[in-house]
Write the structure tokens for this entry.
Amino acid sequence: MKKKRIVSYIAAVILLAAVIAGYSYYKGQTEKRQLEEAKKNEITGVEDLPGRKIGVQMGTTGDTYAKDYEGDESGTSVERFNKGTDAVQALKVGKIDCVIIDILTAEAFVEKNKELKILEEEFTNEDYAICVDKSNTELKEKINGALQELREDGTLQQISDYYTGAEEVKGKNPYRMMQDVKRDNGTLSMATNAEFPPYEYFDKGEIVGADVDMMQAVCDRLGMTLEIQNMEFDAIITAVESGKADVGAAGMTVTEDRLKSIDFTDSYTNSKQVIIVKDFALSAKKQSLRESLYDNFIKDNRYEYLLKGFGNTLLITLFAVLIGILLGLLIALVRTGYDRNGSMPVLNLLCRIYLTVVRGTPAVVQLLIIYYVILTSVHNKILVAVIAFGLNSAAYVAEVIRSGIMSVDIGQFEAGRSLGLNYHQTMVSIIIPQAVKNILPALCNEFIVLLKETSISGYIGLMDLTKGGDIIRSITYEAYVPLYAVALIYLVTVMLLSAGVNCLEKRLRKSER
């Protein structure tokens, strides 16, 4: 029997080895055929773009010019991404065929992604300028004067050489902020997208780059203090128009469409758009898990992006929950009061309108409206996020509490009134305590949803947990590890919250015995 078992085990091992070998051979042949097919369809120039999937960063010049190819007879499609990094990652995994982006940014991407290359043929030329609100002509003239001084004394060339110059000057002579300048002319708020190297990007927790140095040099000439706001690229013009920022500097090209809503200073540099494609002659060198973890979290203390973002996420969630509970409870009492005895009809109508609007529109739209329209003068982004998510949560909490109150048997209410309690005393002493036990699981789910919903805070340039992961991805160009880390943190947090609520439910059930 033992010999038969040994023979069976050996046969099973041989069969398993044969299956693995067969699968490996099949996979290798499939990848080989896919590679050969990809080489046949390789993009070598602008003339090869028709019929391909083109990746661009939303709102950039590449996006503007790529529209000319979109929807043509060849079936060309344009995939728009919030960040150039995301477009590059999509190219690496074969989701798109090429990326159109600024030459210097393309060089930075290709330097860290050896399996990519830049085509020699340029896509288009462009001039970069600083965007200013149309009504702020005085600031525009001051910046133009400062730019002229920087051009004449060689400062602009010095900044350009440091980031993009030849090998003998690149990285050798950085611009230093002037220390002997009286900065009594206020603060200049600059909106940017810090995922566009070498113009603006994160380095050791700070936003640096050619545009940052250029704006610092402008502030030195104007006697102003520079303040930097990081946000999505397509939100920069909106931020300047709404007064959330004084200027926008993020490698922005002057176009006719943009001039309809915003003004621009004189150009401070010239660049060109190029096409990034896969280099099939090279194979990507894969990092080990240890190397990947070091590169994404340990190197330059990049884990601090996640810590800071997670701290902001918890802070926003905590205070938004408090607003949601307090406001939701008030709305629920108004609604139940009207349902029970027809009181406060005007307040009930206002509450119903509020519930309809909030529950009928996406949270991200509400966040943007509150930030750019309603709270225009408020520059504290955490405060704006707390108010936005608190108001959003209150609408859902109100209906949860109302349904809990209405689920309590009407006899309980009548018993309280028969004992001489008034309406308010009956609600506080009898109805609401029973309703809380009924609605606790639903409230827990609402809090969990709110915690995860704060991940859209990045739309207003706020550093939350998700945004922290995005910043790491923009530095390392690693698509998976930062996303897995963010997902794991959210998962553990939700599990802890769920465990806490389960304990609370058990204690409440014990009190019923």
In short: The chain has 18 helices and 13 strands. Residues 301-511 form a domain with the MetI-like fold fold (CATH 1.10.3720.10). The longest strand covers residues 269-278. The radius of gyration is 29 Å.
